[in-house]
Amino acid sequence: GGLIGRYLIHALDAVSKKHRLNLQLVAMSRDPRKTKLLFEGIRYWSPEEFRCRCGEYHAPYCDGFPVLPDRTLLELVDDLRHDAGRPGHRSSAIRCYQHNIDSNGVSDSRHLKGKALDFYIEGMTGNQLLKAAQADSRTRYAYIIEGQWVHVDVN
């Protein structure tokens, strides 16, 4: 951004270093062609499903995309959905810094980097989805959140 934008970025950077916070200051490109390219070949998930949910219940903190979703994550969850042959649903994907706080997320959450998804696939138990995610080498870490909801993240 302009002059004010640069001052704000420097101020946030100073605050994050002083208080040892992990602020994401990289904004998603406003160029829809890049988003289209990122999702090219992804069969079952849309960019909207990866949008930060901070604006769903109050005024938004961000424009929905403080970072781009990670391509490896997109491919992983798309393949898990494809192999199951059933729809998938997300509860949390990308999070902006403030929404991560509101969600009681850890300060170094992979959601802040676009590298995590909390989701379930219809007809699968949490254990079934967890086992499928853990069997895939692209999965860095996965765990059952509750019931059939699973967290998965990638490097």
Instruction: Based on Cα principal axes, name the global outline.
Output: globular
Helix/strand order, N-terminal first: HHHEHEHEE
Mean pLDDT across residues: 86
Give the strand order, joined by hyphens, for the main sheet.
Answer: 1-2-4-3
Query: How is the main sheet built?
Result: 4 strands, antiparallel
| Helical segment count | 5
Q: For the terminal residues, how far apart are their CA atoms? A: 29 Å
Helical proportion, percent range: 25-40%
Whole-angstrom Rg: 16 Å
Strand content bin: 5-15%
Number of strands: 4
Helix-strand category: alpha+beta
Q: Which spans have pLDDT < 50 for at least 5 consecutive residues?
A: 1-6, 23-29
Please characterize this protein's 3D structure.
The protein is an alpha+beta fold and 155 residues long. Helices cover 34% and strands 14% of the residues. It contains five helices and four strands. It has helices spanning 3-18, 32-38, 71-84, 97-102, 126-134, and strands at residues 88-92, 116-121, 141-146, 149-153. It has a four-stranded antiparallel sheet. A hairpin with a 2-residue loop joins β3 and β4. The radius of gyration is 16 Å and the shape is globular. Mean pLDDT is 86; it is low at 1-6 and 23-29.
Structural key phrases:
4 strands, 155 residues, alpha+beta, globular, 34% helix, four-stranded antiparallel beta sheet
